[in-house]
Amino acid sequence: MADFHEFYPLRRHNTFGFDARARLAAHIRTETDLVTALADPRAAGMPVVVLGGGSNVVLTGDLDACVLLMEIPGYAVADHGDNWHVTAGAGENWHALVSRTVADGLPGLENLALIPGTAGAAPIQNIGAYGVELRERFASLRAYDRQAGQFVTLDLDACAFGYRDSLFKRAGRDRYIITAVTLRLPKAWRPVLNYGELARELEGLAAPTAAQVRDAVIAIRSRKLPDPARIGNAGSFFKNPVVPAAQRHALLADHPALVSYPQPDGSYKLAAGWLIDQCGFKGLDDGPVGVYGKQALVLVHHGGGTGAALLKLADRIADTVQARFGVRIEPEPVIL
Q1: Locate the FAD-binding PCMH-type domain: which residues (predicted)?
Q2: pTM (global) more than 0.85
């Protein structure tokens, strides 16, 4: 039988630091632990929630669910022709994984440094930063298919990655539990410096190394984003909305300083942080929750608040942005 804990406190398992309890919780350190927990009669009929670092969730209250705390370790490197394949257990800390690959001479993940969370959660969100998305470095993943009752391997196409989106946020949300991720890192590496702020940080370096790119990303993120160990947060709370070129053109007529980025399909991604800032929310404190003073995309929890209070603030921000700009911004984190 699984080693379940009843009414397990989750405050340390979500980076917002909200108090909540799980009806049942189990630490998953091996694939056998996972199968055993799912088959345990005490969990029969209960919803299953998988938590890694808890850096992309908002807990709105106690969970009447079986919470699986994903802690499967692992790190392996294989030679695949023009690429290195790095396989990490789902419980591996993402930033530690990035640093290890760079130290091992396996560049490719450096732009994704300091993103909180675990390797197993990275595909769910299709994490991305400073010009690189996970799907560009993705080979495959291993997951337990609850519907089929067996472990499966899913490739890039099967995961259906989108902007901060994937199969695992839609049809596969309750079906698949990720246990390992394999990343494809090119041997013919070149730094990705098409993000303006990162290029400026590395100005003066003719040929920056992967370690220098990683350190620059860490420096930028540290200046802009609060440390979850000090201030509860989940990084960027809202997605950058994508709009047709015609809508962006119309917005520019009224807002010439609008910050936007062209997309391959001709649409434009708008900077949600700029939209929020224009509505006067940056630095707002709403009791125990608020908007970070250095980055309007980040909602924070100072302690003693609730997920419900945070969502109320998020809705207020989204409503105000929509009323002013005619654009709806959506949250990135999973709401539980």
Answers
A1: 18-188
A2: yes
